[in-house]
Amino acid sequence: MISSGDRIVLGVSGGADSVCLLFVLLEYAKRMPLQLAVVHVNHMLRTDAGEDAEFVAQLCRRADIPFFLQEADVAAFAAQEKLSLEEAGRELRYRAFCKTADALQANRIAVAHSANDRAETMLFHLFRGSGMKGLCGIPPSRERIIRPLLCLQRSEIEAYLKDRGLSYRTDHTNLEDGYTRNRIRHHVIPWAEQEVSAGAVEHMCRTADILSEAEEYLSIQTEAAMERCVEMREADPVRAAVRVEPFRQLHTALQKRLLLALLRELAPGGKDISAVHVENVRGLFEKNGHSRTDLPFHIRAVREYDRVLLERRESPGAPEPVLPYREIALPLGETQDPLRFDLGIFGQIEVSVFFADGEQKIPGMQYTKWFDCDKMKESPVLRCRRAGDFLSIADGAGGIIHKSLKKYMITEKIPREVRSRTVVMAEGSHVLWLAGYRISEYYKVTENTKRIMQVKLIKDCADSGTEEKDGRAYKGTFVGGGSGCQDQGDCRPDQQGLCGKAGASGVCP
Fold first, then answer.
1. Are 51 and 169 in contact (CB under 8 A)?
2. pLDDT of residue 160
3. Where does the pLDDT of residue 422 fall: very low under 50, low under 70, confident under 90, or very high at 90 and above?
4. Contacts (Cβ under 8 Å, ≥6 apart) of 452
5. Does residue 450 surpass a pLDDT of 60?
């Protein structure tokens, strides 16, 4: 837990355990170079709390080590945060320890939990229905927190102090049964030691060690499962997406652990997420289509086709996010050089307008499209989707029909959270292009087209910032003016477009 030259901040209340911790580390400081400092937190709950602080200050003066007093109004904090006095006291103690450690650039914070504390914590968690991690009790170390006395029972600690003639303070609230932990300490543990097994505490700590090893292994397996199943994990907005099929292949235990880990990332402080919430989300993976469940902290889990999206909103009625740029009107006049417009996190749009010469090949890339300028009555704009938006698509019989953008997105199984973040190019309510998906049949280039607008979405990815369909470019040559393929020039040799014809040698039929 410690190495030569460590700077260690000790949390010392003045009770038996913390006084023992202080003197044990003072002995170690005689054997190796250590820099020790003590923090005492006055919880302001007892009238004699100042006497405890003075007692610890005297110990530090005699040992010639720095002493820091922190005062925390635990009762007020508990009321404000709706916590128990125990929870509030623990939170403020560790804040004080960390604050002092940061100021002193200490790399260790030592606290005085014993084997009895670990056993009490195990029972406390067990009675409340904890999982494996809770049954591990208190860990010997976590990040920079160390617990050097966790292997010692309270009787051993008191014997150590008695043998050396060391005094300590007794907090009378620890002798009362007002707190749940105190009742476990005063009644359950002694009964177990006397009536069940004389080594109950020792045996429980041994079990905690075994469970800790299993927990560590399962944590590694859970992270590996995350790599296989989670395709998106973002902090702003707080959300994650889990792929259905890889998730279904996991053992039930890993499924539950994975979902619990993600939900605790979404829930502030990881509180109030229980087994029933995990089961509710797990049930979405067995359903088809679109379904959802609402959880605490405005967390929502939604099944969308081949994945389940987990997302936390600031409030239940929070609006869908919009694109991070204002509407951009694209030029209809011929451009000498391509014009670029910034789309924030979406990259840039490059626009050029030129005359058709009959020799150009229509690009077959997913993010570079051509449009017939002569059919545009006004400048198209880049924006997010709106109610009433529609696409014109081929009806398979040589004609064109209108289809609402909403229905198109549902048919194409575009995830709900993607729909409001997709770039839309539109003339009024008529969508020319849903970026990354398809263009409108009406605006496609034909042999009669005189002016062409080329629009290229430039993103930070491979292929010089433009993502091509399926990672390849399928460039087709325009042959006729029929209402052929779903997206002109995109048919592969093994694909069939809406025209009913298969591609040949990469050329659009």
1. yes
2. 97
3. confident
4. 353, 354, 355, 356, 360, 370, 371, 372, 373, 445
5. yes
- Mean pLDDT throughout 414-427? 80
> What angle separates helix 85-104 from helix 74-81, to the nearest 10 degrees?
110
- pLDDT score recorded for residue 478: 25
Name the residue among 374, 335, 367, 373 with its Cα closest to residue 348.
367
- Return the SS3 of 420: coil
The amino acid that residue 443 corresponds to is Y
User: Residue 174 forms beta bridges with which residues?
Assistant: none
User: Who contacts 487 (Cβ-Cβ below 8 Å, separation ≥6)?
Assistant: 438, 439, 497
Q: Which residue in 134, 329, 153, 311 sits closest to 232, CA to CA?
A: 311
Q: Compute CA distances 99 → 69, 96, 110, 112, 361, whole Å.
A: 12, 5, 14, 18, 66
CATH number of the domain located at residue range(s) 236-312 in this protein: 3.30.465.60
Closest CA to 204 of 216, 215, 189, 185: 189
Q: What mean pLDDT, rounded, does the chain reach?
A: 83
**In this model, does residue 374 exceed pLDDT 60?**
yes
CA atoms within 13 A on the CB side of 412: 17
- Which H or E run contains 215? helix 200-229
Can you give the pTM of this predicted structure?
A: 0.62
pLDDT at 474 over 60: no
- Residue 64 region by backbone torsions, left for phi larger than 0, else alpha for psi between -120 and 50, else beta: left
| Both tokens assigned to 359 | 């020799």
- Classify each residue of 96-105 as buried b or exposed e, where b means 16 or more C-beta atoms within 10 Å of its C-beta: bbbebbeebe
Helix or strand or coil: residue 55? helix
What b/e readout covers 250-267, taking b as 16+ CB neighbours within 10 angstroms? beeebbbbbbbbbbebbb
Dist. CA 410–CA 397, nearest whole Å: 23
Q: Is 131 helix (H, G, I), strand (E, B) or coil?
A: coil
pLDDT at 400 (0 to 100): 87
Domain at 7-210, CATH class = alpha beta
Smallest CA-to-CA distance from 24 within 137, 122, 163 is with 163
Average pLDDT, integer, range 473-500: 37
User: Where in the chain is CATH 3.30.465.60?
Assistant: 236-312
Q: Which of 21, 41, 16 is nearest to 98 (CA)?
A: 41
Instruction: Write out the residue limits of the CATH 3.40.50.620 domain(s) in the chain.
Output: 7-210
Specify the DSSP element, H or E, that contains 246. Answer: helix 244-248
Measure the N-to-C terminal CA separation of the chain; round to a whole number of Å: 72
pLDDT of residue 235: 65
Query: What's the pLDDT band for 171 if we cut at 50, 70, 90?
Result: confident
Bridging pattern class, strands 348-355 and 339-342: antiparallel
Residue pair 467/460 in contact (Cβ under 8 Å)? The answer is no
Backbone angle region of 178, left / alpha / beta, with phi > 0 → left and psi within -120 to 50 → alpha: alpha
Render pLDDT for 235-259 as a digit per residue (tens, 0 to 9). Answer: 656 788 899 999 999 999 999 999 9
